[in-house]
Structures are given as structure tokens and as C-alpha cells.
Amino acid sequence: MREPSSALKDRTEAGTELARQLTHLRAEGPVVLALPRGGVPVGFEIARWLPAPLDILIVRKIGSPGNPEYGLGAIVEGGHVELDVDRMREGGYSLAELRPVIDRELREAERRASVYRSVRPRVGWKKRTVIVVDDGAATGGTLFAAIRAVRAQGAGRVVVAVGVAPPDTCHRLNREADELHVLREPANFHAVGEYYQRFDPVNDDEVLELLRQAGTVPS
């Protein structure tokens, strides 16, 4: 499918454009909190341009037992769970049915956190402004879980910065976050990747390398 004429070149460009919108936050000494994997290249550029420390937060989608792509919520490393009770009701799913999925995704979240933090220890963000970053959001489920988890862990203000999201998701995110920055807000949204000219999958090695580089950038 041909990408829209307003498509972003890649995640690096998205990070650079978002950084320009976030320069007013420099005085607050923010922490950039990227959601792996796709949010890390975006967050890296924001952290580099501000400059600010870069950290990651692992959030895993909770899919239905029969269809993993049908999102019913999300779980954050450490065990914070957000469930979409309306979608659960529509699909006829109970919490007991989702428990094996939740447990599996939590194990994977903790595994990834252990791998990534082997090169980049956690940055403290209590009472600090936190910029939660992703390359895009369809329903926004993982971002909502991240926002609430970060608030529960004592963040001061929570700013959300994403490359692309549909208007309805932006409206809901705007209610959750203290500040929202979105580069592309297409009315006829289908998938995040359609709004990037280059949208290759990001692997663990790329995430680890960016986290290593972030450790050498003054903040």
C-alpha cells in the first residue's frame, strides 16, 4: 500500500520532529520513557535533542486467548494491569480465562526488562516530568497502561509523544496525559506503519545499541 504524502520518513525523523515540539520541557529536567521496541528509536532522538535521560518501560498487550491480536488490555513490567472491560464483555471473556495470558505476558515483560537493563539501569522519575514515547498508537491500549503505571510510581507530570494516532485515540490520550504531542492524526487511520515511509521491525539488538548510546549522551 502506498503511504500518504504526509508520511514520516522513519522513526528517527519522528523523534526529531517531536523533540522540536518538546523543547519547552527542558527546564523541567524530564525523563524520556520509550516503549520498546518501536518507541525506542523515537525516544532516543528526543532524549538526544533535549537532552534528557532515556529509559524504557515494557508494556505487553493482553490479547484474547483465541486471537492474540484482539486486545483486551495491557500489562506493565512490575505487574500493573489495565483491562478493557467493555471489550471483555463484548467478547464474552472472564478474568479467569485471561489469567494464563496475563501471566505469560508478565513473564515476557520481565524477561525483556532484564535484558534491556543489563546495559541501561532504570532512571528514577519520581516527582519528575516523564515523556512517554511510542512510534504510534492504534487503540492506545499500551499507552494508557503506561501512563497509569507511571503515575502510580510517582511521576510528576506525564507527557505523551507519539508519531501517529487516529483522532479518537488522541482524544482519549489527551484526557489521560497532562500534555499530548502527535505528529500525524489521520482521520482514515488503518495502521501505524502506513504513515511511515520506512517502518522496519525493531529488534532487541537495535534497542540494546540505542540504550548503550544513550548512556554516553550528556543529559
Structure write-up:
With 219 residues, the chain is of the alpha/beta class. The chain has two domains: 11-60 and 121-214, Rossmann fold (3-Layer(aba) Sandwich); 62-114, no CATH class. The chain has seven helices and eight strands. It has helices at residues 11-21, 39-49, 85-91, 95-116, 141-152, 167-176, 204-214, and strands at 31-34, 54-56, 59-63, 71-76, 80-83, 130-134, 158-164, 179-184. Helix 1 (11-21) crosses helix 2. The mean pLDDT is 93.
CATH topology of the largest domain: Rossmann fold
Structural class: alpha/beta
The CATH architecture of the largest domain would be: 3-Layer(aba) Sandwich
Give the C-alpha Rg. 17 Å
Task: Give a quick rundown of the structure.
The protein is an alpha/beta fold and 219 residues long.
Task: List the main descriptive attributes of the protein structure presented here.
three-stranded antiparallel sheet, 219 residues, globular, five-stranded parallel sheet, 2 domains, 8 strands, alpha/beta
Topology:
Layout (H helix, E strand, L loop, with lengths): L10 H11 L9 E4 L4 H11 L4 E3 L2 E5 L7 E6 L3 E4 L1 H7 L3 H22 L13 E5 L6 H12 L5 E7 L2 H10 L2 E6 L19 H11 L5
Parallel strand pairs: 1-2, 1-6, 6-7, 7-8
Antiparallel strand pairs: 3-4, 4-5
Helix pairs in contact: 1-2, 2-7
